[in-house]
Protein backbone atom coordinates (compact mmCIF):
# COMPACT_ATOMS: atom_id res chain seq x y z
CA UNK A 1 0.00 0.00 0.00
CA UNK A 2 2.97 2.28 0.58
CA UNK A 3 5.93 2.58 -1.77
CA UNK A 4 9.17 3.83 -0.27
CA UNK A 5 10.73 6.66 -2.28
CA UNK A 6 14.02 7.11 -0.44
CA UNK A 7 15.57 6.32 2.89
CA UNK A 8 16.08 9.94 3.87
CA UNK A 9 15.45 13.45 2.75
CA UNK A 10 15.58 16.86 4.36
CA UNK A 11 12.76 16.03 6.71
CA UNK A 12 13.10 12.29 7.08
CA UNK A 13 12.05 9.11 5.23
CA UNK A 14 9.40 9.45 2.54
CA UNK A 15 6.77 7.06 1.30
CA UNK A 16 4.12 7.30 -1.39
CA UNK A 17 0.61 5.87 -1.57
CA UNK A 18 0.28 3.28 -4.30
CA UNK A 19 -3.35 4.24 -4.97
CA UNK A 20 -5.51 7.31 -4.66
CA UNK A 21 -8.59 7.86 -2.53
CA UNK A 22 -11.61 10.08 -2.28
CA UNK A 23 -14.17 10.45 0.50
CA UNK A 24 -17.31 8.34 0.32
CA UNK A 25 -20.64 10.15 0.20
CA UNK A 26 -21.60 11.84 3.42
CA UNK A 27 -18.08 11.64 4.85
CA UNK A 28 -16.15 14.74 5.78
CA UNK A 29 -12.66 15.07 4.36
CA UNK A 30 -9.67 15.26 4.08
CA UNK A 31 -8.55 12.33 6.20
CA UNK A 32 -6.02 13.46 8.77
CA UNK A 33 -2.45 12.25 8.40
CA UNK A 34 -2.39 10.86 11.92
CA UNK A 35 -5.47 8.78 11.07
CA UNK A 36 -3.67 7.37 8.05
CA UNK A 37 -0.67 6.56 10.19
CA UNK A 38 -2.85 4.91 12.82
CA UNK A 39 -4.51 2.74 10.18
CA UNK A 40 -1.14 1.61 8.93
CA UNK A 41 0.48 1.20 12.31
CA UNK A 42 3.08 3.79 11.38
CA UNK A 43 4.90 5.73 14.11
CA UNK A 44 3.48 9.03 15.27
CA UNK A 45 6.37 10.79 13.54
CA UNK A 46 4.29 10.68 10.35
CA UNK A 47 3.40 14.34 10.22
CA UNK A 48 2.37 15.58 6.78
CA UNK A 49 1.77 14.84 3.12
CA UNK A 50 1.92 16.90 -0.03
CA UNK A 51 0.15 17.16 -3.37
CA UNK A 52 2.21 14.32 -4.79
CA UNK A 53 0.39 12.00 -2.37
CA UNK A 54 3.48 11.58 -0.22
CA UNK A 55 3.52 11.30 3.53
CA UNK A 56 6.70 12.43 5.22
CA UNK A 57 8.18 11.06 8.39
CA UNK A 58 9.24 13.59 10.97
CA UNK A 59 12.80 13.90 12.14
CA UNK A 60 12.26 11.99 15.37
CA UNK A 61 13.24 8.55 14.06
CA UNK A 62 12.91 6.24 11.08
CA UNK A 63 10.48 3.30 11.04
CA UNK A 64 11.82 0.27 12.85
CA UNK A 65 11.20 -3.46 12.51
CA UNK A 66 8.69 -3.15 15.34
CA UNK A 67 6.82 -0.51 13.39
CA UNK A 68 6.61 -2.84 10.41
CA UNK A 69 5.27 -5.63 12.58
CA UNK A 70 2.65 -3.34 14.09
CA UNK A 71 1.55 -2.37 10.61
CA UNK A 72 1.25 -5.99 9.55
CA UNK A 73 -0.77 -6.78 12.64
CA UNK A 74 -3.14 -3.87 12.19
CA UNK A 75 -6.04 -3.59 9.83
CA UNK A 76 -4.76 -2.77 6.38
CA UNK A 77 -5.41 0.69 5.06
CA UNK A 78 -7.70 -0.72 2.41
CA UNK A 79 -9.82 -2.56 4.99
CA UNK A 80 -10.15 0.44 7.28
CA UNK A 81 -10.83 2.92 4.52
CA UNK A 82 -13.08 0.90 2.27
CA UNK A 83 -14.90 -1.78 4.30
CA UNK A 84 -17.92 -0.37 6.15
CA UNK A 85 -17.95 -3.33 8.54
CA UNK A 86 -14.38 -2.75 9.64
CA UNK A 87 -13.74 -1.30 13.08
CA UNK A 88 -12.83 2.33 12.72
CA UNK A 89 -14.07 2.52 9.12
CA UNK A 90 -13.26 5.99 7.82
CA UNK A 91 -15.57 5.97 4.82
CA UNK A 92 -13.28 6.36 1.84
CA UNK A 93 -13.69 4.85 -1.61
CA UNK A 94 -10.95 3.94 -4.06
CA UNK A 95 -10.70 5.70 -7.40
CA UNK A 96 -10.04 4.00 -10.69
CA UNK A 97 -6.77 4.67 -12.48
CA UNK A 98 -8.58 7.25 -14.62
CA UNK A 99 -9.54 9.28 -11.54
CA UNK A 100 -6.20 9.71 -9.85
CA UNK A 101 -6.48 13.22 -8.46
CA UNK A 102 -4.90 14.29 -5.19
CA UNK A 103 -7.35 14.90 -2.39
CA UNK A 104 -5.08 17.03 -0.24
CA UNK A 105 -5.81 20.71 0.16
CA UNK A 106 -5.49 22.64 -3.08
CA UNK A 107 -6.86 25.99 -1.94
CA UNK A 108 -4.96 29.28 -1.77
CA UNK A 109 -5.12 29.18 2.02
CA UNK A 110 -2.84 26.19 2.14
CA UNK A 111 -0.13 28.05 0.23
CA UNK A 112 -0.65 31.10 2.42
CA UNK A 113 -0.02 28.93 5.46
CA UNK A 114 3.07 27.32 3.91
CA UNK A 115 4.65 30.62 2.88
CA UNK A 116 3.78 32.25 6.20
CA UNK A 117 5.44 29.38 8.05
CA UNK A 118 8.47 29.55 5.77
CA UNK A 119 8.85 33.26 6.50
CA UNK A 120 8.43 32.68 10.22
CA UNK A 121 5.46 35.06 10.40
CA UNK A 122 2.72 34.65 12.96
CA UNK A 123 -0.88 34.40 11.89
CA UNK A 124 -1.73 37.61 13.76
CA UNK A 125 1.09 39.61 12.19
CA UNK A 126 0.22 38.37 8.70
CA UNK A 127 -3.45 39.20 9.19
CA UNK A 128 -2.59 42.72 10.35
CA UNK A 129 -0.37 43.31 7.32
CA UNK A 130 -3.14 42.02 5.03
CA UNK A 131 -5.77 44.16 6.72
CA UNK A 132 -7.98 41.35 7.97
CA UNK A 133 -8.93 39.71 11.25
CA UNK A 134 -6.71 36.81 12.41
CA UNK A 135 -9.81 34.62 12.72
CA UNK A 136 -10.66 35.26 9.07
CA UNK A 137 -7.13 34.46 7.93
CA UNK A 138 -7.27 31.28 9.99
CA UNK A 139 -10.43 30.23 8.15
CA UNK A 140 -8.76 31.00 4.80
CA UNK A 141 -5.75 28.88 5.72
CA UNK A 142 -7.96 25.98 6.73
CA UNK A 143 -9.99 26.20 3.53
CA UNK A 144 -13.15 27.28 5.33
CA UNK A 145 -13.30 30.60 3.46
CA UNK A 146 -12.39 30.84 -0.22
CA UNK A 147 -10.22 33.65 -1.53
CA UNK A 148 -12.71 34.92 -4.10
CA UNK A 149 -11.65 38.55 -4.55
CA UNK A 150 -8.57 40.06 -6.14
CA UNK A 151 -8.22 42.46 -3.23
CA UNK A 152 -7.94 39.59 -0.73
CA UNK A 153 -5.47 37.63 -2.86
CA UNK A 154 -3.31 40.69 -3.47
CA UNK A 155 -3.42 41.80 0.17
CA UNK A 156 -2.15 38.39 1.25
CA UNK A 157 0.54 38.43 -1.44
CA UNK A 158 1.73 41.85 -0.31
CA UNK A 159 1.73 40.80 3.33
CA UNK A 160 3.84 37.73 2.52
CA UNK A 161 6.04 39.63 0.03
CA UNK A 162 5.32 37.31 -2.88
CA UNK A 163 3.60 37.52 -6.24
CA UNK A 164 -0.10 36.58 -6.29
CA UNK A 165 0.95 33.78 -8.65
CA UNK A 166 2.85 32.19 -5.76
CA UNK A 167 -0.45 31.86 -3.91
CA UNK A 168 -2.54 30.62 -6.81
CA UNK A 169 -0.25 27.66 -7.47
CA UNK A 170 -0.33 28.13 -11.23
CA UNK A 171 0.31 26.53 -13.65
CA UNK A 172 -2.15 23.91 -12.45
CA UNK A 173 -1.67 20.23 -13.12
CA UNK A 174 -3.66 19.30 -16.24
CA UNK A 175 -6.96 17.53 -15.57
CA UNK A 176 -7.93 16.79 -19.17
CA UNK A 177 -6.39 16.19 -22.58
CA UNK A 178 -6.82 19.81 -23.75
CA UNK A 179 -5.10 21.21 -20.66
CA UNK A 180 -2.30 18.70 -21.03
CA UNK A 181 -1.81 19.72 -24.65
CA UNK A 182 -1.84 23.42 -23.76
CA UNK A 183 0.83 22.90 -21.11
CA UNK A 184 2.84 20.87 -23.58
CA UNK A 185 3.09 23.89 -25.89
CA UNK A 186 4.27 26.37 -23.24
CA UNK A 187 7.96 25.69 -23.90
CA UNK A 188 7.53 26.13 -27.66
CA UNK A 189 5.74 29.46 -27.14
CA UNK A 190 8.43 30.66 -24.72
CA UNK A 191 11.12 29.62 -27.18
CA UNK A 192 9.53 31.60 -30.02
CA UNK A 193 9.10 34.64 -27.77
CA UNK A 194 12.65 34.70 -26.43
CA UNK A 195 14.47 33.73 -29.64
CA UNK A 196 13.63 36.80 -31.75
CA UNK A 197 12.92 40.45 -31.14
CA UNK A 198 11.14 42.71 -33.59
CA UNK A 199 13.47 43.37 -36.53
CA UNK A 200 15.25 40.04 -36.23
CA UNK A 201 14.47 37.55 -38.98
CA UNK A 202 14.29 33.81 -38.30
CA UNK A 203 16.19 31.52 -40.63
CA UNK A 204 13.07 30.09 -42.23
CA UNK A 205 11.56 30.24 -45.73
CA UNK A 206 8.82 32.79 -46.35
CA UNK A 207 5.39 31.23 -46.60
CA UNK A 208 2.67 32.57 -48.91
CA UNK A 209 1.03 35.54 -47.21
CA UNK A 210 -2.44 34.13 -47.83
CA UNK A 211 -1.59 31.13 -45.66
CA UNK A 212 -0.08 33.26 -42.90
CA UNK A 213 -3.05 35.62 -42.99
CA UNK A 214 -5.49 32.71 -42.78
CA UNK A 215 -3.72 31.35 -39.70
CA UNK A 216 -3.74 34.83 -38.17
CA UNK A 217 -7.50 35.02 -38.69
CA UNK A 218 -7.91 31.56 -37.18
CA UNK A 219 -6.03 32.67 -34.07
CA UNK A 220 -7.78 36.00 -33.62
CA UNK A 221 -11.29 35.21 -34.82
CA UNK A 222 -11.74 31.69 -33.48
CA UNK A 223 -9.13 30.28 -31.11
CA UNK A 224 -8.53 33.24 -28.81
CA UNK A 225 -12.21 34.31 -28.59
CA UNK A 226 -13.03 30.72 -27.61
CA UNK A 227 -10.17 30.53 -25.06
CA UNK A 228 -8.84 27.43 -26.81
CA UNK A 229 -5.40 27.43 -25.19
CA UNK A 230 -4.36 24.07 -26.62
CA UNK A 231 -4.93 25.11 -30.23
CA UNK A 232 -3.42 28.56 -29.63
CA UNK A 233 -0.30 27.01 -28.15
CA UNK A 234 0.08 24.75 -31.17
CA UNK A 235 -0.30 27.61 -33.67
CA UNK A 236 1.49 30.61 -32.15
CA UNK A 237 5.17 29.53 -32.27
CA UNK A 238 5.20 28.96 -36.04
CA UNK A 239 2.95 31.98 -36.65
CA UNK A 240 5.38 34.28 -34.81
CA UNK A 241 8.25 33.04 -36.97
CA UNK A 242 6.24 33.42 -40.17
CA UNK A 243 5.17 36.97 -39.28
CA UNK A 244 8.73 38.00 -38.42
CA UNK A 245 9.87 36.71 -41.80
CA UNK A 246 6.99 38.50 -43.53
CA UNK A 247 7.83 41.75 -41.72
CA UNK A 248 11.19 41.79 -43.51
CA UNK A 249 9.31 42.17 -46.82
CA UNK A 250 8.52 45.89 -47.40
CA UNK A 251 5.27 44.93 -49.14
CA UNK A 252 4.02 43.00 -46.11
CA UNK A 253 5.72 44.95 -43.33
CA UNK A 254 2.74 46.88 -41.94
CA UNK A 255 0.31 43.97 -42.08
CA UNK A 256 2.89 41.63 -40.54
CA UNK A 257 3.68 44.03 -37.68
CA UNK A 258 -0.02 44.47 -36.91
CA UNK A 259 -0.33 40.69 -37.04
CA UNK A 260 2.56 40.38 -34.59
CA UNK A 261 0.84 42.78 -32.18
CA UNK A 262 -2.28 40.61 -32.31
CA UNK A 263 -0.28 37.39 -31.89
CA UNK A 264 1.77 38.75 -28.99
CA UNK A 265 -1.49 39.78 -27.35
CA UNK A 266 -2.72 36.20 -27.71
CA UNK A 267 0.53 34.97 -26.15
CA UNK A 268 0.12 37.40 -23.26
CA UNK A 269 -3.33 36.14 -22.29
CA UNK A 270 -2.47 32.50 -23.02
CA UNK A 271 0.42 32.81 -20.56
CA UNK A 272 -1.53 34.91 -18.08
CA UNK A 273 -4.44 32.50 -17.89
CA UNK A 274 -2.22 29.41 -17.64
CA UNK A 275 0.03 31.12 -15.09
CA UNK A 276 3.34 31.21 -16.98
CA UNK A 277 5.38 33.73 -14.99
CA UNK A 278 7.21 36.43 -16.94
CA UNK A 279 5.81 35.58 -20.35
CA UNK A 280 2.90 38.10 -20.31
CA UNK A 281 5.33 40.93 -19.56
CA UNK A 282 7.64 39.83 -22.37
CA UNK A 283 4.70 39.63 -24.77
CA UNK A 284 3.64 43.18 -23.89
CA UNK A 285 7.21 44.37 -24.47
CA UNK A 286 7.19 42.74 -27.90
CA UNK A 287 3.89 44.51 -28.64
CA UNK A 288 5.52 47.82 -27.75
CA UNK A 289 8.47 47.08 -30.07
CA UNK A 290 6.12 46.34 -32.97
CA UNK A 291 4.06 49.46 -32.25
CA UNK A 292 7.20 51.61 -32.24
CA UNK A 293 8.15 50.19 -35.63
CA UNK A 294 4.73 51.24 -36.93
CA UNK A 295 5.10 54.66 -35.25
CA UNK A 296 1.34 55.15 -35.12
CA UNK A 297 -0.51 56.48 -32.03
CA UNK A 298 -3.24 53.91 -32.61
CA UNK A 299 -0.84 51.03 -32.05
CA UNK A 300 1.33 52.77 -29.47
CA UNK A 301 -1.72 53.48 -27.31
CA UNK A 302 -2.99 49.94 -27.81
CA UNK A 303 0.31 48.49 -26.59
CA UNK A 304 0.26 50.92 -23.65
CA UNK A 305 -3.21 49.72 -22.69
CA UNK A 306 -2.08 46.10 -22.73
CA UNK A 307 0.80 47.01 -20.42
CA UNK A 308 -1.63 48.57 -17.95
CA UNK A 309 -3.99 45.61 -18.19
CA UNK A 310 -1.32 42.97 -17.57
CA UNK A 311 0.75 44.65 -14.86
CA UNK A 312 1.23 42.70 -11.64
CA UNK A 313 -1.79 42.69 -9.36
CA UNK A 314 0.36 43.73 -6.40
CA UNK A 315 0.83 47.21 -7.90
CA UNK A 316 -2.68 48.50 -8.51
CA UNK A 317 -1.56 52.09 -7.98
CA UNK A 318 0.83 51.85 -10.91
CA UNK A 319 -1.81 50.07 -12.97
CA UNK A 320 -4.20 52.93 -12.30
CA UNK A 321 -1.62 55.54 -13.35
CA UNK A 322 -0.82 53.72 -16.59
CA UNK A 323 -4.49 53.22 -17.42
CA UNK A 324 -5.34 56.89 -16.84
CA UNK A 325 -2.40 57.97 -18.99
CA UNK A 326 -3.61 55.72 -21.81
CA UNK A 327 -7.17 57.01 -21.47
CA UNK A 328 -5.86 60.51 -22.20
CA UNK A 329 -3.53 59.70 -25.11
CA UNK A 330 -4.45 61.72 -28.23
CA UNK A 331 -4.89 59.75 -31.42
CA UNK A 332 -5.97 56.54 -29.72
CA UNK A 333 -9.11 54.74 -30.82
CA UNK A 334 -12.25 55.05 -28.74
CA UNK A 335 -12.00 51.34 -27.89
CA UNK A 336 -8.59 51.89 -26.30
CA UNK A 337 -9.76 54.91 -24.31
CA UNK A 338 -12.79 52.96 -23.11
CA UNK A 339 -10.84 49.86 -22.12
CA UNK A 340 -8.30 52.02 -20.31
CA UNK A 341 -11.10 53.54 -18.23
CA UNK A 342 -12.39 50.04 -17.43
CA UNK A 343 -8.92 48.96 -16.32
CA UNK A 344 -8.66 52.07 -14.15
CA UNK A 345 -12.05 51.23 -12.64
CA UNK A 346 -10.92 47.70 -11.80
CA UNK A 347 -7.73 49.04 -10.21
CA UNK A 348 -9.83 51.37 -8.04
CA UNK A 349 -12.22 48.58 -7.10
CA UNK A 350 -9.34 46.32 -6.07
CA UNK A 351 -8.24 49.09 -3.70
CA UNK A 352 -11.76 49.58 -2.37
CA UNK A 353 -12.27 53.01 -3.95
CA UNK A 354 -15.89 52.72 -5.11
CA UNK A 355 -16.34 56.38 -6.04
CA UNK A 356 -13.32 56.49 -8.36
CA UNK A 357 -14.32 53.15 -9.88
CA UNK A 358 -17.78 54.50 -10.66
CA UNK A 359 -16.28 57.63 -12.24
CA UNK A 360 -14.26 55.56 -14.69
CA UNK A 361 -17.20 53.25 -15.37
CA UNK A 362 -19.26 56.29 -16.29
CA UNK A 363 -16.55 57.45 -18.71
CA UNK A 364 -16.36 53.99 -20.30
CA UNK A 365 -20.14 53.85 -20.65
CA UNK A 366 -20.18 57.19 -22.45
CA UNK A 367 -17.46 56.03 -24.84
CA UNK A 368 -19.30 52.76 -25.52
CA UNK A 369 -22.37 54.75 -26.54
CA UNK A 370 -20.29 56.39 -29.27
CA UNK A 371 -19.62 53.08 -31.01
CA UNK A 372 -22.13 52.14 -33.68
CA UNK A 373 -22.11 48.35 -33.17
CA UNK A 374 -22.85 47.05 -29.70
CA UNK A 375 -19.59 45.09 -29.81
CA UNK A 376 -16.63 46.57 -31.66
CA UNK A 377 -14.87 44.10 -33.99
CA UNK A 378 -11.61 46.08 -33.95
CA UNK A 379 -8.74 43.87 -32.70
CA UNK A 380 -11.37 41.63 -31.09
CA UNK A 381 -11.51 43.96 -28.06
CA UNK A 382 -15.27 43.33 -27.64
CA UNK A 383 -15.57 46.92 -26.42
CA UNK A 384 -19.12 48.23 -26.39
CA UNK A 385 -22.19 48.47 -24.21
CA UNK A 386 -22.41 44.73 -23.55
CA UNK A 387 -18.78 44.42 -22.54
CA UNK A 388 -19.04 47.45 -20.25
CA UNK A 389 -21.94 45.66 -18.57
CA UNK A 390 -19.75 42.58 -18.05
CA UNK A 391 -17.03 44.75 -16.54
CA UNK A 392 -19.61 46.28 -14.19
CA UNK A 393 -20.35 42.80 -12.84
CA UNK A 394 -16.62 42.13 -12.29
CA UNK A 395 -16.08 45.48 -10.61
CA UNK A 396 -19.18 45.11 -8.44
CA UNK A 397 -17.84 41.77 -7.27
CA UNK A 398 -14.49 43.33 -6.36
CA UNK A 399 -16.31 46.02 -4.40
CA UNK A 400 -18.00 43.36 -2.30
CA UNK A 401 -21.43 43.20 -3.93
CA UNK A 402 -21.56 39.44 -3.40
CA UNK A 403 -24.88 37.93 -4.47
CA UNK A 404 -26.13 41.42 -5.39
CA UNK A 405 -24.17 41.09 -8.63
CA UNK A 406 -27.29 39.31 -9.85
CA UNK A 407 -29.02 42.69 -9.97
CA UNK A 408 -26.16 44.20 -11.99
CA UNK A 409 -26.05 41.18 -14.28
CA UNK A 410 -29.80 41.21 -14.92
CA UNK A 411 -29.40 44.02 -17.45
CA UNK A 412 -26.60 42.32 -19.38
CA UNK A 413 -27.21 40.13 -22.43
CA UNK A 414 -23.75 38.63 -23.02
CA UNK A 415 -24.56 36.67 -26.18
CA UNK A 416 -22.98 39.20 -28.55
CA UNK A 417 -19.43 39.04 -27.19
CA UNK A 418 -16.86 36.28 -27.56
CA UNK A 419 -17.31 32.99 -25.70
CA UNK A 420 -14.33 33.90 -23.55
CA UNK A 421 -16.01 37.11 -22.38
CA UNK A 422 -19.36 35.34 -21.96
CA UNK A 423 -17.62 32.77 -19.77
CA UNK A 424 -16.07 35.55 -17.68
CA UNK A 425 -19.53 37.01 -17.15
CA UNK A 426 -20.91 33.71 -15.86
CA UNK A 427 -17.80 33.10 -13.74
CA UNK A 428 -18.31 36.40 -11.95
CA UNK A 429 -22.06 35.89 -11.58
CA UNK A 430 -21.41 32.43 -10.14
CA UNK A 431 -18.74 33.69 -7.74
CA UNK A 432 -21.08 36.36 -6.47
CA UNK A 433 -24.05 34.04 -5.98
CA UNK A 434 -21.94 31.46 -4.16
CA UNK A 435 -21.20 33.95 -1.39
CA UNK A 436 -24.70 33.24 -0.02
CA UNK A 437 -25.90 29.76 0.84
CA UNK A 438 -29.42 30.31 -0.48
CA UNK A 439 -28.06 31.05 -3.97
CA UNK A 440 -25.67 28.10 -4.06
CA UNK A 441 -27.52 26.14 -6.75
CA UNK A 442 -27.79 29.20 -8.99
CA UNK A 443 -24.13 29.99 -8.47
CA UNK A 444 -23.09 26.48 -9.38
CA UNK A 445 -25.31 26.61 -12.47
CA UNK A 446 -23.58 29.84 -13.54
CA UNK A 447 -20.13 28.26 -13.23
CA UNK A 448 -21.30 25.25 -15.24
CA UNK A 449 -22.62 27.59 -17.94
CA UNK A 450 -19.22 29.30 -18.05
CA UNK A 451 -17.50 25.93 -18.35
CA UNK A 452 -19.79 24.96 -21.22
CA UNK A 453 -18.74 28.10 -23.11
CA UNK A 454 -14.99 28.06 -22.42
CA UNK A 455 -13.89 24.97 -20.49
CA UNK A 456 -10.16 25.65 -20.61
CA UNK A 457 -10.64 29.18 -19.30
CA UNK A 458 -12.82 28.07 -16.40
CA UNK A 459 -10.55 25.22 -15.37
CA UNK A 460 -7.58 27.57 -15.14
CA UNK A 461 -9.35 30.30 -13.16
CA UNK A 462 -8.14 30.57 -9.58
CA UNK A 463 -11.38 32.10 -8.32
CA UNK A 464 -13.45 29.29 -9.82
CA UNK A 465 -11.20 26.78 -8.08
CA UNK A 466 -11.50 28.68 -4.81
CA UNK A 467 -15.28 28.90 -5.08
CA UNK A 468 -15.62 25.19 -5.82
CA UNK A 469 -13.18 24.22 -3.08
CA UNK A 470 -15.14 26.44 -0.71
CA UNK A 471 -18.35 24.64 -1.60
CA UNK A 472 -16.76 21.29 -0.89
CA UNK A 473 -15.33 22.47 2.40
CA UNK A 474 -18.52 24.08 3.67
CA UNK A 475 -21.16 21.71 2.34
CA UNK A 476 -22.02 18.11 2.99
CA UNK A 477 -20.62 15.69 0.49
CA UNK A 478 -23.93 15.28 -1.28
CA UNK A 479 -24.51 19.05 -1.57
CA UNK A 480 -24.52 20.05 -5.21
CA UNK A 481 -24.72 16.40 -6.17
CA UNK A 482 -23.03 15.04 -9.24
CA UNK A 483 -22.65 18.48 -10.85
CA UNK A 484 -20.54 19.83 -8.00
CA UNK A 485 -18.37 16.74 -7.76
CA UNK A 486 -17.91 16.67 -11.53
CA UNK A 487 -16.90 20.33 -11.70
CA UNK A 488 -14.58 19.88 -8.73
CA UNK A 489 -12.82 17.04 -10.48
CA UNK A 490 -12.51 18.94 -13.77
CA UNK A 491 -11.02 22.04 -12.16
CA UNK A 492 -8.62 19.89 -10.18
CA UNK A 493 -9.70 20.44 -6.59
CA UNK A 494 -11.24 17.03 -5.87
CA UNK A 495 -11.84 13.66 -7.50
CA UNK A 496 -15.09 12.95 -9.28
CA UNK A 497 -17.82 11.02 -7.60
Automatic annotation (TrEMBL):
Protein name (Swiss-Prot/TrEMBL): Transcriptional regulator with XRE-family HTH domain
UniProt GO MF annotations: DNA binding; DNA-binding transcription factor activity
Transcription regulation among keywords: yes
Record has Transcription regulation as a keyword: yes
Species the sequence originates in: Lentzea atacamensis
GO annotation, cellular component aspect: cytosol
Domain HTH cro/C1-type: 112-167
PANTHER family linked: HTH-TYPE TRANSCRIPTIONAL REGULATOR, HTH-TYPE TRANSCRIPTIONAL REGULATOR SUTR
Assigned keywords, A-Z: DNA-binding, Transcription, Transcription regulation
Superkingdom classification of source: Bacteria
InterPro entries named among the record's database cross-references: Cro/C1-type_HTH, Lambda_DNA-bd_dom_sf, TransReg_Diox_bact_type
Pfam family for this entry, one: HTH_31
Amino acid sequence: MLDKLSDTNTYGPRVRFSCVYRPARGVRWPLRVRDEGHCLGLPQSVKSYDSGLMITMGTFRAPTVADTRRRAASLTLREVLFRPSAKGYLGWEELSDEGQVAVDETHVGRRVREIRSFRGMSLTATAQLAGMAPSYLSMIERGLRPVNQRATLEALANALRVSPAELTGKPYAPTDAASEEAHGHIFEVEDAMTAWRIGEVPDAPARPWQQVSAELDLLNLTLRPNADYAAQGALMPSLIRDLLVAASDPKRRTAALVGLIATYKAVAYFAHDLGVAGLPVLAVERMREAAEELDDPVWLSYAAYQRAQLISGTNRSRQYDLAVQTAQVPGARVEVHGLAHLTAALACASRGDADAAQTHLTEATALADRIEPDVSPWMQTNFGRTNVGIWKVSIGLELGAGAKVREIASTVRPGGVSKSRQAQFWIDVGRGLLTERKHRDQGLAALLEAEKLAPQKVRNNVFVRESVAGLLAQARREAGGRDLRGLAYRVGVAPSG
